[in-house]
Write a structure and sequence with these properties.
The chain has 197 residues and is an alpha+beta fold. The protein is built from 5 helices and 5 strands, in the order αααβααββββ. A 5-stranded mixed β-sheet has the order 1-5-4-3-2. A hairpin with an 8-residue loop joins strand 3 and strand 4. Helix 4 crosses helix 5.
Length: 197
């Protein structure tokens, strides 16, 4: 009888322990960080392989073309999520599309008066490696994301010491046009009036 009681007690302990473990594991999800709701692309949205290929081509053309060819790929309802360009449009009371057109159809800037300065294509000091403007290209539904590999000056090291970093551009492509753009742009700090005089 003693052995039977010991077995029952051991079975009870195992059952109790298994129940506690199950309760503990089921409560972990309640305490875990909740994943935010996906905003883009729209959950459940699908595209065929041909649609994804066409969206990638449009986004890459938009990313690498300039001037009128680039502007032709933007939808008139174009939305810009880059805060500098969006702020410019808002300050000038124009649409993001009109601001975009002004940026990419503007004539090239003239060299500074006096000459002899460093031009747009040249820079003093060591130059970083070329990087890759199309390191990763991902497409899902109507969103194409292009991740760029760049090399930045290490702020903790001597000039010419670069480190690998990544930036991105994301585009919503609909009917062969870019209708929305996101990037890692931030507002530049303003210079206080009179600074540097």
């Amino acid at each position: 009888m003693n052995e039977v009681m010991t077995m029952k007690l051991n079975n009870f302990k195992i059952t109790l322990l298994a129940g506690l473990v199950a309760a503990l594991l089921s409560s972990v999800a309640a305490f875990a960080q909740q994943i935010p709701v996906q905003a883009n692309p729209t959950p459940g949205c699908t595209s065929t392989p041909a649609q994804l290929a066409a969206a990638k081509k449009t986004a890459l053309d938009f990313a690498f073309l300039t001037g009128e060819a680039k502007v032709a790929l933007a939808d008139p309802a174009y939305i810009q999520h880059n805060p500098m360009q969006h702020k410019r449009a808002k300050d000038q009371n124009i649409s993001d599309f009109e601001s975009f057109k002004m940026t990419f159809l503007a004539p090239p800037a003239a060299p500074a008066a006096g000459g002899g300065g460093v031009g747009r294509g040249a820079a003093a000091g060591p130059q970083p490696p070329a990087g890759n403007r199309a390191e990763i290209i991902l497409a899902e539904c109507d969103i194409v994301t292009v991740i760029h590999k760049v090399y930045l000056q290490d702020p903790t090291a001597v000039a010419g010491t670069f480190y690998e970093a990544f930036t991105f551009d994301a585009y919503r492509v609909q009917n062969g046009k870019v209708v929305e753009h996101w990037d890692a742009g931030t507002l530049a700090p303003s210079v206080p009036a009179g600074a540097g005089r």
